[in-house]
Amino acid sequence: MDSDYSVFSILPPFNNVRAQVIDPSGHLVTVGNGVFLSYEAVADPDGSVNSTSIGKSGFWNYTLPLFGQTLAPDHGLAGCNMPGAGNVPQPMSLDLDRQWFGAEGVPITPYDDSGQKNPYPLMRLVVRDVLGTALAATSVVLPVSDEMDCSGCHASNSVAAARPAAGWVNDPDPARDFRLNILRLHDDRQVASPSYLSALAQLGLDPAGLYPSVQGSGLPVLCAACHTSNALPGTGLSGISALTSAMHRLHANTRDPESGLTLDSSANRSACYSCHPGSTTRCLRGAMGAAIAADGSMAMQCQSCHGNMSRVGDVNRVGWLQQPSCQNCHTGTAVQNAGLIRYTNAYTPAGELRPTVNPVFATNPDQPAPGFDLYRFSRGHGGLYCEACHGSTHAEFPSSHRNDNLQSLQVQGHAGVVSECTVCHASPANGL
Fold this sequence. Notes:
Layout: E1 8-9, E2 15-19, E3 36-41, H1 63-67, E4 90-95, E5 100-106, E6 122-128, E7 134-141, H2 151-154, H3 174-190, H4 194-202, H5 210-217, E8 221-222, H6 243-251, H7 270-273, H8 302-306, H9 309-312, H10 386-390, H11 402-412
Parallel strand pairs: 1-8
Antiparallel strand pairs: 2-5, 3-4, 3-6, 4-5, 6-7
């Protein structure tokens, strides 16, 4: 999510929670059958609890100009809400097609109820019967960060190459300052473009550009209103590059003010953490992100899966959907593989995604849509989603962050992949 919504917005507070239920006989619950799920805030081992977003973000002041909705605080864009100060359990809906219970767009922020920053707050998912009796419960992380920051280059009086033609804005509010500088620079680059003028007209904005629009109206703009983002379905204007392409392609040749290297040339996660949640959140925290090479360095970086910034910004790539897959590293079995059973980089020396030899570890094709195969939409044993046992993307078990591991510890007594049969089955199959 953004730390400030008064100038522009890239992402709203919007966290998706999905869960599956196993019945006492070890079978997946695929229809309601009198079973109901809800989520509520719960304290982590440090006592940090996040039940409400009231007073923690200015998002709700700008939902109408940004998203066309007037929302009460704690209410989410997709109809799912925070539990609130009273920690009222919030319902999850059964999706018969996906065979999961879901809560879409929970508007959680990275600040707990005592005002302390915690990017990995917990929610307790509770299964109840028709009488409201709790049958089972588990605690899961809802990762969230407002650490996305462009001030390293775009703050007033920072990097000369990013200085707008009209000069630095020098707004006294640091959060607004770099954002206003970005809009000024965006206008410098685009204001003579017919497609830009057309976009401004379609959105009812000042023909002089985004900066005068925001300054004149006092209302923010949504980046995805012009630049399509699959994180916000239905956004964007025809003829304008997708947000992920525009951002990554433009910045690929930008020099990191700390290292002096172009962001495209850096082979470590610091190139991504310059803008994405990094210095505090450290979102690449799963088993792969925490792996250590023989020389003591990090064995895998963001680029190990996603490639460099130019690849991410390729105009032909479909953002959020066209991603590397498990099988690009986990190429097969011990006897059928692409040279190794497991690689630490998804790409061949030629720069292409590594082909799969045996699909035993492969994601499901055409999920969530034809032509794509995302890990978080893939299923395996007993119809369970892979993430149910292996952890969520970027937080594969065991995670380097304690809160991510609490569920594994709860259900099987140790961190790591959920691998004990008795977690789901009263007794192991075939007497094993």
